[in-house]
TrEMBL record, chains A, B:
Protein name as catalogued: Pyruvate, phosphate dikinase
Domain (PEP-utilising enzyme C-terminal) ranges: 533-875
Pyruvate phosphate dikinase AMP/ATP-binding domain segment(s): 55-286, 292-346
Keywords: ATP-binding, Kinase, Magnesium, Metal-binding, Nucleotide-binding, Pyruvate, Transferase
ATP-binding found in the keyword field: yes
InterPro entries named in the record: ATP_grasp_subdomain_1 (IPR013815), PEP-util_enz_mobile_dom (IPR008279), PEP_util_AS (IPR018274), PEP_util_C (IPR000121), Phosphohistidine_dom_sf (IPR036637), PPDK_AMP/ATP-bd (IPR002192), Pyruvate_phosphate_dikinase (IPR010121), Pyrv/PenolPyrv_kinase-like_dom (IPR015813)
Start and end residues of each PEP-utilising enzyme mobile domain: 420-501
Catalytic residue positions: H452 (tele-phosphohistidine intermediate), C839 (proton donor)
Organism this protein belongs to: Sinosporangium album
Cofactor: Mg(2+)
Alphabetized PROSITE patterns for the sequence: PEP_ENZYMES_PHOS_SITE (PS00370)
């Protein structure tokens, strides 16, 4: 029979699966000899059993009884003992922290008799005892019996009004005694039953309530969004109560072992005299800095300092703790490895190395790519005197400054004039897409991190603050008002910080990131943060197995990517080279009516392409450059069907012959679903000479570079291949051209159509490398047209918990990832030296980089600015055993 | 060491892999004691070795020598023996017939000496000997030495002109002797080498040429298109020459053991006196019916009759044969199981059962769904006196009558007036799509069965005759001319037969198919064909494991499907019910600006939906009816963006408020790639009440049917699910409604997004059935938008051999099929009683039905007219061991 209950002396921090985070750490502290109130933990296994079978597993009741007896023995008091009662708290504690999701009941053990005993224990403090009792009924009623909390609040408010009391502190013991009666009445009215006076029954019901809370809708939703498995269950901690509200010699506090903002070692925390933990959270009174405890209660303070040092040495990391002092006696109520800012994470990791607590391997795993990315965004100058007018949610990082505008049309209009604008809306919807594209940043007053604005802005990499609820946005009057009567009219300049959620009036100067300056080779190694980043990057680079390349389409991006550490180009998109002043040549190509016209157009494009490639080869000399042949459908280079149709219709007989011809062509090339139409390799096979022109330009540029003493390493990539036959045909033509010009180049393919992954064993026969185009692969595997669905329903999908993160942000392991694994395995089986990389945007996403490491790819490729992130995460992936922990 | 050469006495018909079809059957006949000229076969393995290694495998030359010696011994002559030479033919023979693709060289063994010996053998027939010699040089020069055949043709024509000869028959022995000299000169001029006079060398080079011909471009292309594996190689048959052109006592013929057109037993064939096989093919003289041979050479005729009976009994099927009579001696040159018409296939299969040659199991495997489908198309009345003006290729079956039109616009214009039209084009291109949709049939003068017209017409199920090369089509003058000066102007009525390729002037009456009348329950069982179909269908039904359901959206289709043998509905699309006079209600729903308006629109739709379902449940009483909730994006119910934009722009200030509002809405809902947009389950999750309305209507219709004493078996199908979470949410809502109304229904999902197949193990937790929507699954797995790509590049893809058949016609086993297998396996692992079906159009395609059987599905669902085809193929699949032979 499994063991369902663990005393705190029986567990340890490695048993989080079984005891939850809180229980495991309480046991760890107990075993370290720290002053933890005695108690025990009912396992997650018991919870899972209950949720499946609808009843306690057999033996659980007995185990609880046994541990309760041990607890009573240790405390020298019994649960419900009328003259000297033991009180306990019943607290949930799952493996993963789910703040605010799960239930807690304090003061279990009180009833009409034991309340007297509690008063006696408290030195005759009747008020304290009756206050505790009414708190029990209130919490129990709400949490265990499911009574709407407002009933209790109202009764409390009425009583205060009757007594003329301003706050709880003005109420007397007698008042609370009256309230206990009223609260019991509420329980009877709302449930038809008496409040249970049997402490053992109180405890049993509270345990059940914690079990049930695992499946409360908000918890289910939270888990979906946070991708926490639904079947873990929660543990339940039953702990002897200690009281910080027994007078000025008592109190409660929270603390960090070092500054979670900067990483500085020292004492950081808050303390509140004569209070319980919930009072600190409620913010009823102002806390004092923890340092002041030294003056108030030096013994407890010194003990706390010793404990904190012990914890940090033991956990080898920053810890946060909760403690209570009951009449001069210090009790530890909780500890865990604490959250910290991005800058602190880097500083702390290297400090711990210097202290000899961890080695560099572990230090690299203690920081994350997301943290590094945060450090790379430009920041607002902290020395500014700009007015902070409100804070919203930090939905998409960055710092943006611009004129406030209140409609998408206006945003586009001003942006077209070159103005920087911030689009301000109550909430956005698909109609705002144009405005969001035009704006520097987006600010909304409603919606959370999965709202439309947040999702779309993150997808675009655009700064966004959402859910700034203090703002009153009036689209009609084109203005918003902020607290303190601040009014911002259309055209007024505001600044928004997508990394902190801050909104400022006026223009806040932006300062470049010192970390970016470091990557650019201009960093200040005297700066502690820069030095920490440098040390960890050097070690990550030394540790990683994945190479990191850049997605870059021009020499400038290529050069920056190289400074940022890119080891080549993984994706050079050639179609971007067809825009701008070359659009006319492309139009000529498309409108060509015979071989001669088409060849003439191609022969004009070829020298231009050759020059493009020459520059890129120069910037990436000696490193591989993967060039993707033209991918989009040709109609993307022509005017929009609807706009041109309207133009020609309005012109009537005056429409130009050119426009008419163009319209015919646009109509002919029009596709219902261009993403799944005539593009990529299909175009290469159907338009004679198109791919050949590109291959020739690549080969000639490479040869010219070699003749100039350089080292161009071209890799020619064929997009959208779904069948090996397609690749064979293109490859044959390309090899002929390469041979003719006398240049060597690898020829490979994107794997971006599901069928390519499913038939990778065949395709590898004709491909020297695969590059996973996970953007398109995600689109086709899910059936999502990114342009359409992100704006139209992704925010609702995130809210519904259908996915925890957009599959375009982080690679979907179960679907897309499975295809990647199939292709890797079967491709390598056919061709053991097949080179494997990824060039979708996922190449710069931390979680996805870990996946790529696990899947056995050779490199990831991402945008130049994400290269440091990818380098760091590739190092972390290599250094973590299972490779899956990115947080 | 493997054996590379087999004498005809060593092989048999089961060795087709090794000996090719021709060699295996020659060996089989030899062993049956039939008069086959002696010879031997070089294996496909030798060919494969040669093609890989570039040289004969060691031992092959020795084996050839040994077999040649045996052959010389058997014939009492030696190769190249000057006074009495042995001549041999060298013929290719692959496992699968590749007509016209591979090489043959006759008369090997002739040179300046042995030609004299041949004349002596032929009783002093010098003309025959020299003619044979020049034929050798001509064939050898062209086939083995790669000389352009025109050089020889020109020399022959010049000689005839000099001699004033009208045909070859007017040339004398001396003329041919001159020609031999001229042909040798051509060989010297073109290759710089002498024609090889060593017969052994002639033979060696001819064998090499056959090996090489396996990889000739036309053969490679043919294999790609016919999906014949590229690595099989060809066998080579070396056979002693016999001559049908040694005078009037000699001759050559072809015959069938029964009529391949009707299946009637008897003697069917043609005979040509004093001729070789190639003369019959060339059609130089008219052949005589085989019966006349009885009069000319009764002994040979009687022997042939005995042989034919023996062959049919031995092969237990219709055989076709080639034979030669050399001065009264009958020789069998080839046999194989013969091709036949669809009607003959059914008749022959049942006749062979009646004769006790095969059992019913085998009879079912001898007919195919494609043949059955051919019998179900309406036919032109054979008794018509309509003028056949030409024949093209039978590209897409059916019989179509209409006015000839020469442009897409004109086709659409006349069709809009209710006229039946046939679109006539030289060839079609994507611009003709509208016209092809509007026309009853399509006729082109260029392009083969993979041309644009053929591919698109087959995709539409539209009658098409293509490549009618005798027609001169003038689009400009709007007419075509046919042989014999027939001119068809625009508006003239023509009739085209897509099953035979025939084109008639005027209207040919169409008669219904007796087989369809049978399926409709009105068939004439006295008709032999109908009786044959009936017997085989009954046995197929008794044998199959797959159930067959129908795709039907209304009661009429459901009733027909049931008559045709449907065992339920596998796909009832509800969106078709939203068209017609209900479009306004749907528009109201889409334009609804609040909950109230939306609910009002839904509540108007609900009773209409309920009535739709009630009718279908009645037609399918007692059988399962799978109803798919609404699938397409809402904008499909609104006007087209471009058209409406032009309309509003042209109206200017006079545009109605309604049109303006509508345009706003159309713009808002517009999607770049609607196939991958807001549709299916996504719509159900995002538009409150939409799915609930449909589920309620289904449940209420089912309850009403039960109350009326009927038996409605509803299965609710959720489209476009990609993640189990989507299905869970919809299912929860639907189950609530079903419980409330008190109706039981299965709830399941389409598997049509690749991710659904890849995560089927998870999805099966929430689904009671899967139905593979292989249309969309094919679109997303290949990245093909069917609307776009079939017309724009599929014909080129077929020509390039990228696929042998469109993946929309026949399920792509490697890609889409792999996903289906994954989903079947993992879905059943989660839920062993998971019901599995297919509802894409592949459900009615023979090859795909076999795949579904192999993959272990429970049923296929297809359009009502394809149900008999699916039933037959499901039976065949169950009766063939490997389930993969559909031809």
């Amino acid at each position: 029979m499994p063991k369902f209950v663990y005393g705190f002396t029986e567990g340890n921090r490695d048993l989080k699966d079984l005891l939850g985070g809180k229980g495991a750490n309480l046991a760890e502290m107990t075993n370290l000899g720290l002053p933890v109130p005695p108690g025990f933990t009912i396992t997650t296994e018991a919870c899972r059993h209950y949720l499946t079978a609808g009843a306690f597993p057999s033996g659980l009741e007995d185990e609880i009884d046994q541990h309760l007896r041990d607890l009573e023995h240790a405390m020298g008091r019994s649960l419900g003992q009328s003259d000297d009662p033991l009180l306990v708290s019943v607290r949930s504690g799952a493996k993963f922290s789910m703040p605010g999701m799960m239930e807690t009941v304090l003061n279990i053990g009180l009833n009409d008799e034991s309340v007297q005993g509690l008063a006696k224990q408290a030195g005759g403090n009747d008020r304290f005892a009756w206050d505790s009792y009414r708190r029990l009924i209130q919490m129990f009623g709400k949490t265990v019996l499911g009574i709407d909390g407002e009933h209790f609040e109202e009764a409390l408010d009425e009583l205060k009004a009757e007594c003329g009391a301003k706050g709880d502190l003005d109420l007397t013991a007698a008042d609370f005694r009256t309230l206990v009666g009223t609260f019991k009445d509420i329980v009877r009215e709302q449930t038809g039953q008496e409040f249970p006076s049997d402490p053992r029954e109180q405890m049993r019901l509270a345990v059940l309530a914690v079990f049930h809370s695992w499946n409360a809708p908000r918890a289910v939703l939270y888990r979906r969004q946070e991708r926490i498995p639904a079947d873990l269950g929660t543990a339940v901690n039953i702990v002897a109560m200690v009281f910080g509200n027994l007078g000025m010699e008592s109190g409660t506090g929270v603390a960090f072992t070092r500054d979670p903002g900067s990483g500085q070692q020292g004492v950081y925390g808050d303390y509140l005299q004569n209070a319980q933990g919930e009072d600190v959270v409620a913010g009823i009174r102002n806390t004092m800095p923890l340092q002041e405890l030294e003056r108030i209660d030096k013994a407890s303070y010194d003990e706390l300092m010793q404990i904190m040092e012990k914890l940090e040495n033991h956990y080898r990391d920053l810890c946060d703790i909760e403690f209570t002092i009951e009449r001069g006696k210090l009790w530890m109520l909780q500890t865990r490895v604490g959250k910290r800012t991005a800058a602190a994470a880097f500083r702390i990791a290297t400090q711990l190395v210097d202290q000899g607590l961890i080695n560099l391997d572990e230090a690299v795993t203690r920081v994350s790519g997301d943290q590094l990315a945060q450090l790379m965004f430009p920041r607002f100058d902290k020395a500014t005197d700009a007015t902070l007018i409100t804070k919203g949610m930090n939905a998409s990082p960055g710092a943006a400054v611009g004129r406030a505008v209140f409609s998408s049309d206006r945003a586009e209009e001003l942006a077209a004039r070159g103005e920087a604008v911030i689009l301000v809306r109550r909430e956005t919807n698909p109609d705002d897409l144009g405005g969001m594209i035009a704006a520097r940043g987006v600010l909304t007053s409603r919606g959370g991190k999965t709202s439309h604005a947040a999702v779309v802005a993150r997808g675009m990499g655009k700064t966004c603050v959402c859910g700034a609820e203090e703002l009153e946005v009036s689209t009609k009057e084109r203005r918003f008002t902020a607290p303190g009567g601040v009014v911002v009219e259309e055209g007024d300049v505001i600044s928004i910080d997508g990394s902190s959620g801050a909104v400022y009036l006026g223009e806040v100067p932006v300062v470049p990131s010192p970390v970016v300056e470091y990557f650019e080779g201009e960093g200040d190694l005297d700066d502690e943060l820069v030095r920490a980043v440098h040390r960890l990057m050097v070690h990550a680079d030394a540790s990683r197995r994945l190479a990191v390349r850049a997605n870059a389409d021009n020499a400038e991006d290529a050069a920056r990517a190289r400074r940022f550490g890119a080891e080549g180009i993984g994706l050079c998109r050639t179609e971007h080279m067809f825009l701008g002043d070359r659009r006319q040549l492309v139009e000529d190509l498309i409108l060509a009516t015979g071989d001669e016209e088409r060849e003439a157009a191609l022969s004009k494009l070829e020298p231009l392409q050759r020059a493009d490639y020459a520059e890129i080869f120069e910037a990436m000399d000696g490193l591989p450059v993967t060039i993707r042949l033209i991918d989009p459908p040709l109609h993307e280079f022509l005017p929009d069907l609807t706009e041109l149709s309207v133009k020609v219709a309005l012109a009537g007989d005056a429409a130009t012959a050119k426009d008419r011809t163009l319209l015919e062509c646009v109509k002919r090339l029009h596709e219902q679903n261009p993403m799944l139409g005539l593009r990529g390799v299909r175009l290469g096979l159907v338009v004679p000479g198109l791919f050949a022109m590109q291959v020739r330009a690549i080969a000639e540029a490479a040869r010219a570079r070699a003749e100039a003493g350089g080292d161009a390493r071209a890799e020619i990539m064929i997009p959208l291949v779904g069948a090996v036959q397609e690749l064979e045909l293109v490859r044959e033509e390309a090899e002929g051209i390469l041979a003719e010009i006398g240049v060597d180049a690898l020829i490979g393919t994107m794997i971006e159509v599901p069928r390519a992954a499913l038939t990778a064993g065949q395709i590898a026969e004709a491909a020297q490398f695969f590059s996973f185009g996970t953007n398109d692969l995600t689109q086709m595997t899910w059936g999502f047209s990114r342009d359409d669905v992100e704006a139209s329903f992704f925010s609702q999908y995130l809210d519904l918990g259908i996915f925890g993160v957009s599959p375009f942000e982080s690679l979907d392991r179960d679907g897309v990832g499975r295809l990647v694994r199939i292709a890797v395995e079967e491709g390598r089986k056919t061709r053991p030296d097949l080179k494997l990389g990824i060039c979708g945007e996922h190449g710069g996403d931390p979680e996805s980089v870990h996946f790529c490491h696990e899947a056995g790819l050779d490199y990831v490729s991402c945008s130049p600015f994400r290269i440091p992130v990818a380098r760091l995460e590739a190092g972390r992936a290599a250094l973590t055993s299972d490779g899956s922990d990115t947080r």
